[in-house]
Amino acid sequence: MYNPGATANTRSSSRMFRYEVVGLRQSQETDSTGAPIRRSGSTFITVPYSRMNEVMQQITRMGGKIISIQPVDAGNGNVTPEQKNNSATLETRQNTVKPGKASKPMTQAKATTDIPINIYRPNAPFIGKCISNEPLVKEGGIGVCQHVKFDISSGDLRYLEGQSIGIIPPSLDKNGKPEKLRLYSIGSTRHGDDLNDKTVSLCVRQLEYKHPETGETVYGVCSTHICNLKPGDEVKITGPTGKEMLLPEDEDATIIMLATGTGIAPFRAYLWRMFKDGERSLNPEYQFKGLAWLIFGVATTPNVLYKEELEEIQQKYPNNFRLTYAISREQKNAEGGRMYIQHRVAEHAEELWQLLKQPKTHTYICGLKGMEDGIDAAFSVVAAKEGIEWKEYQRQMKRAGRWHVETY
């Protein structure tokens, strides 16, 4: 769950780090993405640890893209003349263009994503505040599920789509010790629901079950805590964690998403990043042009979480987003039983299989662990028709970083 080999996030706040950035806006005349000054040269920004998050947000707002992050002269702590400034220092290096000749962009190294891990740990959590807590299950649906938004503007918490954060309940466990954290997939993009880099959102279902011996209804400690939060309430947050569910940077990728219930959370973040107008304007370097296909399993129509958002995207981007529901208590499978997500996968297995064989296709599974066996069975049948052993092919996709699973 935690990475003890902590990165720069855990080091002294007095340390300095050097960003190499391309694509920063220079002026109104060069503000278009295609302008030569936007496509050439590098800007070097030297930042103290305490300002890393702030400066990253500034770079994003200015249309820049971080190519690398390096500690400043980590060997002896010295700072070179071009880096000598404790606040962000800017130096732009540009190509010289001869008159009458078109400029050529410099060859840049492949962008490396800075993956934040464990900025906040259980022994020193971030104290966020609940901004809003909205029900997601419509009238007639089953259970309680909430979309909860937290204010993180007072700290250094940052995250990427597909990561998780931990929530520590304020109560004590049955042994009188502080409750341990529970992990929840983040349901917002790195910019937050308000697109201002100041919030993080979760999709949380209240755990409810019958005690096997007493028959008493038992409610989950942490999920109940979150679902009952009111605006202004404080909450202990850790993380972020996770690298398994990150999106590829390829704008032309095919993204297959298989979700049940609150497993929709990371996929909501993906879809916002891909298709929401505000997000697309904040991410000029990522303008999704591929295919995203979500197969979403729920119990009833009122339990389709984020239904309006999903169907709005489908209507606006019919050639890029495909939405398929598996509504178990309302739809029937081919055998006449309840329609679960594995049955939808089986229905579309031939088409999905053709997509899986393409090197640009990434498959993500999030939700109840029980769906994995049925999905494997469906793909085993169609792969066998070509003499391919599904499990071996699945292992190949995992090694290639194209098969991503987060189930519980």
Describe the protein's architecture and organization.
With 408 residues, this protein is α+β, with helices and mostly antiparallel strands. The chain has 3 domains: 8-93, no CATH class; 126-241, Translation factors (Elongation Factor Tu (Ef-tu), domain 3, Beta Barrel); 254-407, 3-Layer(aba) Sandwich (Rossmann fold), CATH 3.40.50.80. Helix content is 21%, strand content 25%. It is built from 10 helices and 17 strands. It has helices at 36-39, 52-61, 221-227, 265-275, 277-282, 307-316, 341-347, 349-356, 371-384, 390-399; strands spanning 16-22, 42-48, 65-71, 92-93, 126-135, 145-151, 164-168, 182-185, 199-205, 208-210, 217-219, 234-241, 254-260, 291-298, 321-327, 361-367, 403-407. Strands 8-7-12-5-6-9 form a 6-stranded antiparallel beta sheet, with helices on one face. Helix 7 packs parallel to helix 9. The protein is globular and about 60 Å long. The two termini are 14 Å apart.
**Share of helix among residues?**
10-25%
The CATH class designation of the largest domain is Alpha Beta
Kindly state the number of beta strands.
Answer: 17
Average pLDDT number? 83
Residue stretches low in confidence (pLDDT < 50, at least 5 long) are 1-13, 26-40, 73-112
Query: Which strand order do you get reading across the main beta sheet?
Result: 8-7-12-5-6-9
What is the CA–CA distance across the termini?
A: 14 Å
The CATH level-2 architecture of the largest domain is identified as: 3-Layer(aba) Sandwich
How many discrete domains? 3
Rounded to an integer in angstroms, the radius of gyration calculated over CA atoms is 23 Å
What letter string, H or E per element, gives the SSE order? EHEHEEEEEEEEEHEEHHEHEHHEHHE
- Which structural category fits the helices and strands? alpha+beta
The CATH topology of the largest domain, please? Rossmann fold
- Molecular shape: globular
Number of helices: 10
User: What can be said about the biggest beta sheet?
Assistant: 6 strands, antiparallel
